[in-house]
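Q: Hi! First time doing this. I have a protein sequence and I read that you can turn it into a structure. Is that right? Here it is:
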Amino acid sequence: MAIELTERAVEEVKSIMEAQGLDPKTFVRAIIVGGGCSGMQYTLGFDTEFDPLVDAKYDNDGVIVATEKKFALFLDGAKIDFVDTPTAKGFSIENPKFPAGAGCAACGH
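A: Yes, that's right. Below is the predicted 3D structure, encoded as structure tokens:
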């Protein structure tokens, strides 16, 4: 498996990269910044520094998503989508291994 981007997410990433005039070698970096009562916390950003000894990468219709190998096991099977509704706009991550609210055991989740 891998980290998957939906078609909407791929289109949005390509649009942002074009609008910002980013280097064609730019890719999306996914990072896990912690967990807790609300589950995993993720950060997405653009990067150009890829280290094959440390990083894993996944191609989604020409959009590369990379993460450190130490995060890859936790993100394997995750799906990144782009949502644009009247109440929300942005990227969302659905991770079947760690559903929202599956945080600390002390909280009863």
